[in-house]
Amino acid sequence: MTVFGKIACGFALGLGLLFLPGGGNAASNGSRIVIPPRAPGSVLCDYRGCFGFGREQWYRRPGQPIPNPPPSAGGRNRFDTPGIVIPPRNNYVPPKTDYRAPVDSRIRRHQIWCAQRYRTYNPGTNLYTTLRNGFQPCRSPYD
Hints:
Layout: H1 3-18, H2 23-28, E1 43-46, E2 49-52, E3 58-60, H3 105-117, E4 127-129, E5 135-137
Antiparallel strand pairs: 1-2, 2-3, 4-5
């Protein structure tokens, strides 16, 4: 069959179906998808959150408590009653404000004397740098 013959055959078949009793309405009346309404108080939870149906519909993100617990939970909301209760702490003590470590005054005076006398003095090692002999320990009158 040629292309023209196929087109003519399809056109004739379409006209024939159009003039059948009720055939014209069949093409315009698409099948309807009917979603039955949910039972009042039912809750649907998935990875997107929980959806509630009934007199008022609601949505909660994952991790948020459900406003009215579903009947399957026995009437209690598991998010509102945690298993661990931490009592409030009533014995608060403010932190110390003075953290100065006790320092022997002799050692402190020794470090001040050495730092004033030698520019390269390091109080952590008690050494200063010389030009010819490298590092030397500092000896003060407070030793």
